[in-house]
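Late entry, written up from scratch paper. The run itself happened at the end of the previous shift, but nothing got recorded in the book at the time, so transcribing now.
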Amino acid sequence: MLRFTLLLVTIVSVTAWSSAAYADRKDPKIKLSAQKGLDWLAGEQHRQGYWEANQSQYRVAMTALAGNAMLCEGSTTTRGKYAKKISSAVDYLLETAQSNGLIGYKHDYHYTYGHGFSMLFLSQVFGEEEDARRRERLKEVLTKAVQFCGEAQTPDGGWGYVSAKDGNNFDEGSTCVTQVQGLRACRNAGIPVPKEVVDRAVVYIQKCMAADGGVQYSIRGGGSRPPISAAAIACLFNSGEYENDTAKKLMQYCEKNMNNAGNQNQMFGHWHYAHYYYAQVQYRLGDEKWEKYYLPIAKQIMNQQSANGSWKEGHVGPVYTTAINCTILQIDNGFLPIYQR
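Output as recorded:
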């Protein structure tokens, strides 16, 4: 037992030293770029605590993503530069929680995205929450959210833009990944998550794979797509699946289709979504892989930043793109358990 403990301490110490050594070499311009982006986001938060996309859409999803980006900086609900912003976002999302467990509103377009991202964000907050009353409320909301997620799963093991019942059992890859990562984050935070729900989702991803190793739009087809494939392998990593055949095939596909930072033509208009997930994958693979991937991506992201600190590419809106880019730039800060190695 003592030998195991010493080995564990040694591994943790080496990993911490390696991460610290890399942090010392990190270009300070990257940190400044992320800071400018977060400051812009802070100014865009509405008085009620939410952020929104173009045409006032996706308030729940945008709030979770923007709040998550601020958590990556190291702030919490009580400490740090963005504490008040994060706390307001938490309050807003808790207020949207429905009695059936949905975080959000059924009349919202694609409400499962908001639900999944909210599980991710609130579970990261839960581990650091110091207020006993709000911690209990977070536990209640997340527990019900996990239950709703299980009930919203389709017979094939996936999820669609809405629950299985509301969507006539339609499912597709990107919303499936959002739910699985949210569930995994909840489990890491100590919220009970039925193993069979995640296992069925992993099988769903396997069924969505095409002959070239990529993941298709849905189990019904649609051709391999790099963004969903990158998200799928991040999902497998979150589920503890690193060395199985599915993970290996996905890695081969992604290495072929994702490693060119400037290759946006194959991303079906979802470059930022793709690299949000692929950055998580590369960071988990260690410093050597991470630096080779991260430096060109960070350079491209910084080159596209507007003078006011935001990023404006894409059809969803600057809140979405800015939150995603700030998260990518800060993943290696190591503050959030869901992104840690």
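The chain is about 60% helix and 0% strand.
(Scratch paper discarded after transcription.)
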